[in-house]
Structures are given as C-alpha cells and as structure tokens.
Amino acid sequence: MFNLKPLDDNGAAKNLLSLIFSGTLLLVVGLALLNQQAIFDYYKLRGYVPPTEVAQLATQSTMNDQTRRVFYVNQPVVQDKATFKIDCPDGGGEKTIVLGCYHGGQNGIYLLQVTDPRLNGVKQVTAAHELLHATYDRLSSDERKKVDAMLLNYFENDLKDERIINTIEGYKKTEPNDLINEMHSIFATEIVNLPAELEAYYSKYFTNRKKIVEFANQYQAEFTSRQTAIENYDVQLDSLKDQIAAGEASLTQLQEQIKVEENSLQDLRRSNRTGEFNARVPAFNGLIDQYNQQVRSVQDLVRQYNVVVEERNALASEISELSNALNTDVEQIKQ
Hints:
The protein is mainly α. The chain contains 13 helices and 3 strands.
C-alpha cells in the first residue's frame, strides 16, 4: 500500500503552460516552414523600389499583383550589352526570340536593353519569359507534375508552330534538363491559342497573356516580313537573270545574222549588183533596228535587276541592323 499525495496546483499549472508553450512553438515553426517563401520574399523586397522601366515592363506584360511581386523579388535589371554579357553569358542560353536570363533560386532576372523602336516588344516578352522561369522554380512537387503533364501533352499532341517546334528540339539537344521549364515560358509568351487548362493555369500570372504574344509577333514580324520580301526579291532576280540571259543570247544571234548579211551586201556592192543590194538594204536595216531594240530591252532588264538588288540589299542591311541590336557579342558588332 502507498499513500496518495494531493495534487500541486502550481505544478499542474506549470505543466499546462509548458504544453501550451511547446504547442505554440511548434505552430510557429510549422507556419514559418509553410511560409518560408513569403518570409524570403519579404526580406528580398524590404526597401526595394523598382526602377521605372522595370515597373513599366511589369505593367506592359500584364503581370498581376502576385506575379509582379515575384518579378520584383528577382530585382530585374535592364542592362547594356557589355554588362548583360557578364551576367548572361551566351544570351542566357535562350534559343527563342528573347534576350534575358533568370538566376535560379530567385537570384535575379537580367534583360538586355534594346532601344531600336522596330524591336519594341522584345523586352516585354523577355520579362514575361524570365518571370515564368521564376514562377516555375516556385512550384511544389505536386504542382510541377501537373503542369509538366499539361505542357508535354500540348507539345506532343497539339503544337503546330514549326518555329517553336524547332526551338524545343534545339533545347532537347543542348539543355534537356531544362526542356519543360523552357516550354513553360515559351508557350505562354509566344503562342496565341492554348488548351483551356493551360490558359487557366497561365491566367494565375497574367491578366492578358495574349498581349505578350502580340509583342512577340510584333517584333518577330520585323524579321520575317523582311526575310519574306528578300525571298520574293530573289525570285524576281532569278527571273530577271533568265530574261537578261535570253536577251543576250538573242543579241548574239542577231549579231551573227547582221554580220552574215553585211558580208553579203558588201559582196553585192563589189559585184555592182546594185538592184539586189538596194532590195536587201531594208531587211538589213530591219535587223539593225531589231538589234538596237533588243539592246534597249536588255538594258532595261539590267536596270530593273540593279534596282531590285538595291532594294533587296537594303532589306538585308535592315535585318543585319536588327540582328546587331539583339546581338550580345560586342566584339563581333564592332567589326
């Protein structure tokens, strides 16, 4: 047998307080773990004021408030070519129509400064593209599996754009580990119509995703329209070359006829066969007129050819200018 001792009210209270404190501590730690991204964002954004151009890019690419916050967490920088080349070697490895890079772990977004007005839109599309790399980085394992499945399904079954298909194939060879990550950015910023499930997913980030695609199409057209015109000019040049060659061949033939007839007329003159000579002079003069007309025709064709060459080369120079505006190889541009 043993004696029971009365309960110590103070001890019970202390145990209860200890339990409450432990439970509260666990709750705080649990909440901190669940919200560590929010805490990280808070410290990254503390005191941060986005430059005017960065804020404009966020607005122009229709980022919603939460997306804009992720964009700012990465403290985007618009850089000149020399600086950009340091932070984004090889243009950030991008193979699509953007010039920027995202440093993993929410450690920065870098964009190339492009001032050529013909290329308006490249910075907006690049900003959205790199921002999407940052959002992909934040997806949970379960979210990423779901998103990856949607992206792969679209790529394997519904994607028809040859340029984008070729771009993805390029990533398969050079960056296979980032393939779906790139799809995640490219599809959203460069394809007008997407399956409903992808549209719903991307609507979490942008209020008007198609506006971004309009920017992409706008500056891509600066290249494609000129390239198409050059191809048309090349067709014209090939046709003109054939016409000039045919005209020159005709001139050669006429020259031979004229030479033969001239020799014949001289023989008639030497033989004092004046009647025959005079009878054949009009036909000879007709050959001369035909020859001169053919010369003028060939000269006109040559002038047309030279005009087309000038117009074609002017467009080629414009494409070179546009390419140089997007070329981060500073040394190459100086040459």
